[in-house]
Amino acid sequence: MTTESDEWRWQDATAVAAAVRSGEVTPLEMVDAAIARIEAANPTLNAVVMRWFDEAREVAIGPPSDGPFAGVPFLWKDLWLRYAGQGRTDGNVALAASPSIAERDSVIVARGRAAGLIALGRSASPEMGTLPSTETTAHGATRNPWDTSRTPGGSSGGAGAAVASGMVPFAHASDGGGSIRIPASCCGLVGLKPSQGRISMQGHGIESGLGVDFCVSRSVRDSATLLDALQGPGVGDTVIAPPPARPYVEELTAAPKELRIGLLDSHPLGGAIHDDCRDAVRAAAVTMEELGHQVELGHPATFDDASFVPRFMAMWAAGRRAGLESFEVAIGRPLTEGEVEPQNWAQAQYADQMTAWQYADALAAVAEFRRGTQQWWADGWDLLLTPTLAEPPAPIGDFVSTSDDPMAGMARAGEFAAFTPALNTSGQPAISLPLHWNSAGLPIGVQLVAAYGREDLLIAIAAQLEQAIPWAHRHPNPERAAA
Hints:
By secondary structure, the protein is of the alpha+beta class. Helix content is about 40%, strand content about 15%. The strands form four sheets. An eight-stranded mixed sheet has the order 8-10-9-14-15-13-11-12, with helices on both faces.
């Protein structure tokens, strides 16, 4: 059959894979349809910054895969990850001029290939993934298909915009401070951040202990099936999450018993929360009570500790310095200040002035925060329910920094993404679900957090909520995305 470019536009990856397996459509037809959608919408959205279309077509007509997502078009994020034979820019203008070509795959890429995913290219990321908006000197601004004057979030903003606009059914994303959950919230998608050590970070680049790899998707079943395909340690991993008791796809039909859920509907450090986000999380709480769960106000006391942030920043700044050093190795020369986004240059300069004691104190602060936070679950709570973000998708330009005020974007990020970074520090799994749309038609995500290693519980409750408050029928106007 001939696949029209819109025929599969809003189907999830599970449906696409089923169509390929049945012979209803060929992998090449799926790839060509996705390429047509990218070419139509990307001039407006700027979600795809590297195109591997010729290679994708060669893979599509090659030997068939028996993986669960055989023939499904996919995008890998333009950050750290290695894909053999292809380059990356990490959102940096110097690397964009001379992309670093990988000699071998990262573990997650190799597993993605084995699962049958066909890579069409790389999706946009801010430089080093630092900000919750995807705007760079190297590639320009990536836009939200629900409202192109607004950000799709970051740092996996290109992935979010690509999936939400129907370019591909799901896409790789990574999360070091909210970068899976933030674009999921901004773009009306499912964004599961796995536990640290659930998916190997081998070949990812800087392993800070904060970041994880996974995806943004349209359905809970896509996330569950992909997690089964990608999870597990790689050679040399030292942080390894306990293996699941059974495949994650089996959790899709597991009705959770009555759960004790803590509700956090205010800013933990006293900042502002937009009414839309508060309304979304309170409505989700009502639905969960109707499903038989117990919801009451409660959250870890560590979230209220403002003293943690300045202690932690030494570790974060050191990561920026290490990232710039890796860029210099890749291009074979020192970077100039003009080749680095202001917030990253400023943090690297701060790292240059740090002492070993300050870095050690940052590591100690992370350990204290992790143990204190996880204790809340050990004390008898099953889940934490929060807004994903403190406000709806922000306007393009809100996170821009200048040399005169290099940390302006980071300060704005702290206001916007108040609920996500804590779970990177604690290492726990968290998921953003598209349970609410505001009066302007913008998606508003709701976040659920489980104890370390309990992705099974998140998938089970997410599947239950997907049935109670379905979102598959919601998508942006294709004409707006391609305008």
